[in-house]
Specification:
By secondary structure, this protein is an alpha+beta fold. The chain has 14 helices and 19 strands. Strand 1 and strand 2 form a beta hairpin. Helix 3 packs across helix 7 and helix 5 packs antiparallel against helix 7. It starts with a helix and ends with a strand.
């Protein structure tokens, strides 16, 4: 067990002597975890390797943040990747940044632990109890995460290597683009994208009361709660900044912010596939389903950068059972659908930008809340799509998002709410809940280890693969949303607004 492990670590300036001793001991037989108890750092390395082998064997890896080669306890997202440019290895900021990498790593490991089969967890617990400190397996995971983070960043060369390697991956494959003759096929895809932009712009500019209703208009409202003033929001954003400068409200403050900017969703409901629901796993099922008996909207915080200023983003995610096909040849229809609505707040407490995608990363649409113009995009970049100059939200009322039946395309943004719509109150869910859902007597993520939702493949994947995106059209996990077919853009890119917009004087 330890020889392959030791060989994989010989480039590290860690406890090489201890590894040599353990390898020599391994020549006489495979040592038990108990033999590692006298070397806490090495014990934690072997525990993490053992744990990761179980995660890989059972296919329960979590893809929301990216693993860092050579740093098993740490993971990175796009915001923390971007922060590297502001950090020196010997600075205080480095420790704050490394702590966040460790927190992401621990979160991912704990979710994977929850999703392991009971027998696997039992075996790990029996092998490692008393070898590594910690209250149960979760405690061991937390202890080893901190132990390895400090061990792996104690040396200046290690810190430099971590800064060099902590890169979030991208959802675009250069190989696919080369094989798919990207610079030729992108021209045809661009024609299709522009056609949809023209159609969507026409719909958005149609007054809400003139839009066609094919079924029953249903409005999903958030639960009642306190609405904060702009002044109160500005104070909250300023007071909640963490060591990396991010506004990071918690507890009651977070609840109030999400409630203040929560939209009302008006959906043209023709069938049950147009109703907002809850992702669930049925025992033995190969695909998750959406239970529409209780509507629920999921919440998630993220951050973007404008200049050198981190801004807070409030994400609201609604799931639908399907985008039903209109025929056998409908290459956009399929199992499950979802829409993400995002509000980006400026330091003064008012929205700077609204934007939305479907949970496949498709149909990225921007609604600037302040005077901005779209930057020149060039031939091989899918520039920002802005169908309205500014969304119209009546003062003192919620933003209303009108969704088309079947496709769940955004048709109108603003207000007022339709007085004839049937009204339901949705409850709240946390996005992280989707990473570990009940599954009979066990637990299972909504997402695969590749960050997609199984069974949501679309026919478009057969002819859009030359754009470099794996499985285009499938529902995806946070952090795995490519939002442009032409060029490269991710929903959680830190410079997504700065790259695509210029402030209008």
């Amino acid at each position: 067990m330890l020889l392959p492990y030791a060989l994989s670590r010989v480039t590290r300036p860690g406890p090489l002597l201890a590894l040599v001793v353990l390898v020599l001991a391994g020549c006489a037989g495979t040592p038990s975890p108990q033999s590692l108890a006298k070397d806490p750092v090495t014990a934690c390395r072997v525990f993490v390797d053992d744990f990761q082998a179980e995660v890989d064997r059972h296919g329960v890896g979590d893809a929301q943040s990216y693993r860092i080669r050579g740093f098993d306890s740490l993971r990175v997202n796009r915001f923390l990747d971007d922060q590297r440019q502001y950090i020196e290895p010997e600075s205080r900021a480095f420790r704050a940044w490394a702590d966040e990498l460790q927190a992401l790593g621990e979160q991912g490991h704990l979710i994977e632990l929850a999703n392991l089969p009971p027998g696997s967890r039992q075996r790990l617990g029996e092998d490692w109890r008393g070898v590594v400190p910690g209250d149960g397996l979760a405690g061991i995971v937390s202890h080893c995460g901190r132990t390895l983070m400090f061990a792996d960043t104690a040396d200046p060369h290690d810190r430099e290597r971590l800064l060099a390697r902590a890169e979030a991956g991208e959802e675009y494959s250069r190989t696919r683009r080369i094989l798919g003759l990207y610079y030729l096929t992108a021209v045809g895809v661009n024609l299709g994208v522009n056609s949809w932009h023209r159609e969507s712009t026409e719909v958005h500019r149609t007054p809400a009361d003139e839009l066609d209703i094919h079924g029953e208009l249903v409005r999903y409202q958030p639960p009642p709660g306190e609405i904060l003033s702009q002044e109160a929001i500005a104070g909250l954003l300023s007071e909640s900044r963490d060591r990396l400068g991010r506004p990071l409200p918690r507890g009651e403050q977070r609840e109030k912010l999400f409630n203040t900017f929560a939209p009302a969703w008006e959906v043209d409901v023709v069938s049950g596939d147009d109703r907002i629901g809850v992702p669930v796993w049925e025992p033995g099922a190969a695909m998750a389903q959406i239970d529409t008996s209780q509507p629920r909207v999921y919440r998630h915080l993220s951050h973007v950068r404008w200049g050198d200023q981190p801004l807070l983003q409030l994400n609201y995610v609604a799931w639908f059972p399907a985008r039903p096909k209109t025929s056998f040849f409908d290459y956009l229809g399929g199992h499950m659908d979802g829409v993400i609505w995002r509000v980006t707040l400026a330091p003064d407490g008012a929205p700077m930008m609204y934007d939305t995608i479907h949970t496949c990363g498709c149909y990225h649409t921007f609604y600037p809340a302040r005077p901005m113009q779209v930057a020149d995009s060039g031939l091989y970049y899918e520039g920002a799509f802005v169908p309205l100059e500014k969304p119209l939200q009546p003062e003192g009322e919620r933003m209303v998002i009108r969704l088309e039946h079947r496709t769940h395309y955004t048709e109108h943004v603003g207000g007022p709410a339709d007085p004839d719509a049937e009204e339901f109150v949705h409850d709240w869910g946390e996005y992280n809940e989707l990473r570990s859902l009940p599954w009979g007597t066990a637990r299972r993520s909504l997402f695969t280890p590749r960050g997609m939702v199984a069974g949501t493949e679309r026919g478009e994947r057969w002819f859009l693969w030359p754009m470099g995106i794996a499985n285009p059209g499938a529902m995806r996990q946070w952090g795995r949303h490519p939002t442009a077919f032409i060029g490269r853009r991710h929903f959680d890119d830190v410079d997504v607004f700065e790259r695509d917009f210029e402030v209008r004087e």
